[in-house]
Amino acid sequence: MSLAQQALDKAEGIDGYRAACAASPLNAEARAEHIYAPSFLGKDELKKLYLSIYDVPLLKSVDVIVLDSSADNGYPHTRANSLVCMPKSSIISVNSHALTETLCHEAIHIHQRQYPDLWSSACSKDGWTPVSLSDIPSDFVSRCRLNPDTFYRQRFWAWQTHYVPMPLFIREDYPTLEGVQIKWMDMRNKALFPDPPPSFVKRYGDNPPQPEHPFELLAVEYAAANLNSDALLRTKLQSL
What we know:
The chain has eleven helices and eight strands. By secondary structure, it is an alpha+beta fold.
């Protein structure tokens, strides 16, 4: 067994992400054709990856493994406790600058795993309130795409107390990981709305990437600002 596969097996024993996907009919079907296994890079692509890793100080004590291009639809992600998973396609299909920003984004997710209280406090200061899983209708929960970067601790948050973004599969008869629409559940009546509240748009813009969770929104924002070290992140989070 390869070291990469051992790392995946160890992560699964901690976070149970793949088991959670298998236990969810829609999430399992959406991943049915994906190969979630280690892969390899050619010499040039490997050099490109190493150089980008070197440019992100947060990755100094983090393991980065390459997966099959189809793994999780080619989406880079993290696993417990400090494992960055990069599908091969996410490395070879982008330039070095974009790769470095993606690695910074994933490194920020590792930082969130390592310091959850710090990040939860920052989310609260930024306008978010944690929501218990039991407060979300089970039908909605079953239709949500699982995200390995956010499902392990606090899956749902409400913006300005009431508005919960939910990554719902568009088609339940043919779910795909890219076939997801963010809808907003009002905690007061459990109704779903297609558009975010105006206050969210004012804070994050009209169409921010990955608006399903504050950890994603902040990772996008901070990676774009090149907050690539523990010191830079702590300074930013403590300024909120």
